[in-house]
Amino acid sequence: MKIVKKILLGLLILLVVATVGIFFYLQSTKPKLDGELQLKGLKAPVEVVYDDFGVPHIYAQNEEDLFQAFGYVHAQDRLFQMEIVRRLADGRLAELFGEKALPSDKFFRTLSFRKHAQWTIDSVLMTNPNAPFVKAAQAYIKGVNEYIQNGKTPIEFSIIGIKKTPFELADMQIIMGYMGFTFAEAFRSESIATMIQSKYGPEYLKDVMSAWPANEPKIPTQAQESKVQSSEILAKMANQLTNIEYNSPFPPYHGSNGWVIAGSKTKSGKPILSNDTHIAFSQPSVWYEAHLECPNFKFYGNFLAGTPVGALGHSQYGGWGLTMFENDDVDFFREKANPANPNQVWYKDHWEDLKVREEVIKVKDKGDVKIAIKTSRHGIIMNESFDKMADQKEPIALWWVFNQFPSYHLESFYKMAHAKNATEVGEAVSKLTSPGLNVMWGDTEGNIAWWAAGRLPKRPAHVNPMVILDGSTGNDDPQGWYDFSLNPQILNPKRGVLYTANNQPADMGNGLVAGYYVAGNRASRIEELLFNDKKDWTEESVRQVINDVTSSPYKALLKDILPVIDRTQLNEPAKVAYEKLAKWDGSHDLEDTEPTIYYRFLYHFFVNTIKDELGNEVFKAFEHNGNFKRNMASLMRNDASPWWDNISTPKKETRKEILTQSLNEALNSLAEQLGKEMNDWQWGKVHTLTHNHPLGIVPVIGKFFNVGPLPAPGGRETINNLDFPIDSSGTYKVTYGPALRRIVDFGDAEHGRSVLPSGQSGNVMSKHYGDQAEMFVKGGSRPELMNRTEIEKVKTGKLILKP
């Protein structure tokens, strides 16, 4: 017995020693926020003051030192995030995660971001190596690599077995390429649209994937102020992309809200800028905040991993926000293959050779995988990048605006950060090509402005860019480019308010810009709250709008469709739910039960209308499709739509029958899931937010890296847009939403306010890893400080970087 006790005591001691050892090891990986360090290449000392939320405020005596120090500081907090996103964009995740990452690697290697990055470096950066934006980028990379060489190794590197390797300018560019891909909705939509049109005809297509619905709000512009089998295989491409995105270690971009209110309507007399970018949630947060300052430059910005220029930000002169333009800058072309030569396709009157190169993907614990990247005059052939397209005889080419030009993002955003007025910003954004971005600006001179930035192609009049085009005749080919002056834009609108919510911009005189614009719910609510006679807007009152969780179009939709339901055929719980929905104002607060009922009803409506035509595989991708979301209300109001009929049954179902059946089924499934007491079906119980780390899936230790789950208000297409897939589970795990909520009153530019979804640091042991998570779900904020005296009062560390 004594021996057993000794053994148990020994094991306990070993466990304690191991636990203490692990704790101190993890503590040793934390960023150095205090003291002194040497940084090779600096011309003069640089001070980095960390505030009480871990935001670095960097003070240098020249710009190159400033950006080098920022590179070091950025890598210290987010090196693992930088490493993962460059590997994702470069198609090199399988080196770490094995075969399960191969579909993602094949897709992104096919997109050839590194080849495009080298083109940008050769034709833009190295042709003008002394340009300030090039020097800033090189200094930033130098700082990142100084940390990689001499700084602490993130714990994720040790767990996964990542070797630290230097960053290059090309890595910075491929990260920007990944951003461009995630903005392009056409990747997910055009194959499904082609399937629907090919298999069921235009009557089916127009009800779910038409252009901008009538009476939905459009963004005002300056012009307004002044006056079959193969198709089914292709559709599965969208499903595979959906799977890649859901399992991605770095979040795709989805949408955003942004508006600027003129000084004539604010208490300060200066414009107020509000922006919340909608990006899939992950841990750490996608944005990294930093305040950069040197002689003649003072800037507070939000930065993507591995990039030196703020994608969002403001100075003492003005600032900008971004949303997705949602313009259609992607076309797919069906090429005609030569039966005698797989490396040739027909064009007009002759066979043309495809350009072919080989890529080798390294796979952990497996042999290398070789893929052939083929390119026609229309673009990259996509077949080999998707498992279920590999045997497709007709090559499908990707024509993408992104691939038609080198990238000018680095130059444009550098110049925006240095701009002093709307004229300078307009010149900077005019060089942006792809992805399309809505850029909103406000400044201390009192200007407010918006530009839909991106190169817009001229397509032949007969072309429907939402379906796959014919590459063999040349008739569908783009015919050139519109001048930037014809891009949707507006300067100082008479109303005193401008906004974007990923909705359709109005006509600038050359027709509506084709695109995958989202449903008008958020736009309608923003107009409802901002388009009024209020003259005393403040940061606090604007924050009430940015946190709004009511979708008023839901109320209007239910008013139209509930009377169609046959109440005599409803079960008793469904009758009670009917009355609740009839009184619902569209709010999505934590204690509300109506959204729980509504989305369950919506799921059964989806199943009973579209699943029979699309099948299980395509249904998953289509349910979350932006075009379908935009047209869903029109479909539900259309009594004559062919989608009401279930093609699997001999009878022809009607709208009344399907809506009635869907509400009954919704209430039955809710009772089974949550119990029979309807008052217990609160939204906060089923709608939760978890910030998932790439290691979150690892057994036992995974939860240590994740932040959450947290009950979350908001919902689909509320201004506080906390979106989710709708499936059979009856739970709504938030996948994307505001990646920050940021408001700047230019009457006091040194005191903007913001909040990140989780925290500033990427180190799991840092107190700033998740210290904003509760604040975020509760709609709170904290300051974006730019005043040195105030920063010193809340500092948590001061790092001195010396030459």
Question: Ends: how far apart?
Answer: 64 Å
User: How many helical elements?
Assistant: 25
Helix proportion range: 25-40%
Give the helix/strand class: alpha+beta
- Shape, please? globular
Instruction: Indicate the low-confidence ranges by residue numbers.
Output: 16-20, 226-231
pLDDT average, as an integer? Answer: 88
Largest sheet: 11 strands, mixed
Write down the Rg: 27 Å
Strand content: 15-25%
* Strand arrangement across the biggest beta sheet: 1-30-2-3-6-7-8-9-18-19-21
Count all strands and give the number: 30
Describe the protein's architecture and organization.
The protein is α+β, with helices and mostly antiparallel strands. Among the domains are: 1-30; 552-585 and 593-681, no CATH class. The N and C termini lie far apart (64 Å). The model is unreliable at 16-20 and 226-231 (pLDDT under 50).
Keywords:
25 helices, 803 residues, 38% helix, alpha+beta, 11-stranded mixed sheet, 7-stranded antiparallel sheet
Question: In a nutshell, what does this entry contain?
Answer:
This protein has 803 residues and is α+β, with helices and mostly antiparallel strands. It is built from 25 helices and 30 strands.
List the helices and strands and how they pair.
Blueprint: H1 2-28, E1 35-38, E2 46-50, E3 56-59, H2 63-90, H3 94-97, H4 102-111, H5 113-125, H6 132-150, H7 155-160, H8 169-183, H9 186-200, H10 202-208, H11 222-225, H12 229-246, E4 253-261, E5 272-280, E6 288-294, E7 297-303, E8 312-315, E9 318-324, E10 330-334, E11 337-338, E12 341-347, E13 350-353, E14 355-361, E15 369-376, E16 379-381, E17 396-400, H13 409-418, H14 422-429, E18 437-443, E19 448-453, E20 469-470, E21 489-491, E22 497-500, H15 521-530, H16 539-546, H17 552-561, H18 572-583, H19 594-623, H20 626-637, H21 655-674, H22 683-686, E23 687-691, H23 702-705, E24 707-711, E25 732-733, E26 736-738, E27 741-745, E28 751-755, H24 773-777, E29 782-785, H25 788-793, E30 797-802
Parallel strand pairs: 1-30, 3-6, 10-20, 23-25
Antiparallel strand pairs: 2-3, 2-30, 4-5, 4-22, 5-26, 5-27, 6-7, 7-8, 8-9, 9-18, 10-17, 11-12, 12-13, 14-15, 15-16, 16-17, 18-19, 19-21, 23-24, 27-28, 28-29
Helix pairs in contact: 2-6, 2-8, 5-8, 9-10, 9-12, 9-19, 12-19, 13-14, 18-21, 19-21
